[in-house]
Amino acid sequence: MPEGDTVWRAAQRLDRALSGKVLTRTDVRVPAYATWDLAGATVAETVSRGKHLLTRIDGEQPWTLHTHLKMEGGWRVLEHGQRWPRPGHTARIVLETADTVAVGFQLGIVEIVARDREADLVGHLGPDLLGPDWDADEAVRRLRAQPERTVKEALLDQRAMAGVGNMYANELCFVCGVAPETPVGRVPDLPRMVARAHLLLDQNRHRAVQSTTGDLARGRNLWVYRRGGDPCRRCGTPIRESLLGDLGQERVTFTCPACQS
Question: What's the pTM value of the predicted model, to 2 decimals?
Fold first, then answer.
């Protein structure tokens, strides 16, 4: 599932392409909204909230288009007549203006709600790591609310802190020298971990390649994620790959047994 910085970049692309423009055609390929037509309305803006995208549309009534990429989704901004990069049957929504076609492919969530109902969609989320209202103290407070929970599972809980996905959860545990299965209440310096999460996402939101090591070269940009069996970049110990989480909700986990003991 895309990380918060990836979703932030998607919001920026949509905002640049659509904001202030009148929709000339819309095609919502989701049964609940298949008959909806937003043509004639003006796109106000697109913003991200954690891993959620909110496209605000002004018309006779203000609407919000809520989309979520989930595992396979993606938005593409194209010119009229440009070939779509994915098969047409995977498109879930098409927004056209006079000079732009924005297509949402394989989106996990597509819904349209009245603007004043946005809180129903994202009000449960914790502080957004890339939001203008980022609150580190509140994120720490929410994470500490379940002290026996493993720190990796807590980092992935969007209700505590919005924007961290599995890659960053693995990398944060490594760079902070904490085993992923450590209970939150036993993490030596949780505020430092939260600060590092904000720093990493903030640094990477403007990059095409995410890096936690400081090296942007592919293959050298991450410490442990998806490096099971490879030597640790710090000590040479083979990276251990395992599953962590409740039954049915396990997430693949990467750990250096030496650096994160």
Answer: 0.94
Question: What is the residue-level pLDDT of the chain in tens, covering all 261 positions?
Answer: 789 999 999 999 999 999 999 999 999 999 999 999 999 999 999 999 999 999 999 988 999 999 999 989 999 999 999 999 999 999 999 999 999 999 999 999 999 999 999 999 999 999 999 999 999 999 999 999 999 999 999 999 999 999 999 999 999 999 999 999 999 999 999 999 999 999 999 999 999 899 999 999 989 999 999 999 999 999 999 999 999 988 888 899 999 999 998
**Catalytic: 21?**
no
d(CA 142, CA 191): 12
Question: Of 113, 74, 77, 79, which Cα lies nearest the Cα of 92?
Answer: 74
- 251 catalytic? Reply is yes
138 noted as active-site residue: no
Choice among 3, 96, 153, 171 that is catalytic: 3
State the residue for tokens 């720093």: 199
70 is catalytic: no
